[in-house]
Amino acid sequence: MKIRHEIWRFYFHIYRVNGSIVVVLKSRIGTELQKKLFLIHIYSESPPEQVS
Questions:
Q1: What is the DSSP-derived secondary structure letter of residue 30?
Q2: What sign results for the dihedral spanned by CA atoms 6, 1, 31, 33?
Q3: Is the C-alpha dihedral spanning 10, 11, 13, 14 positive or negative?
Q4: Average pLDDT of the residues in 14-22
Q5: Which domain holds residue 33?
């Protein structure tokens, strides 16, 4: 799953990795070498362990 959004001077991609959601933010300001990447781990979708 990959979703791309553009907001103001940033764009970000949302990835689903191993049951977790990861957001990559990238600034559109400056040159390619000046752009910064931010990886934000939002949450894990793995269900809690059930103990019987």
A1: S
A2: positive
A3: positive
A4: 78
A5: 2-44
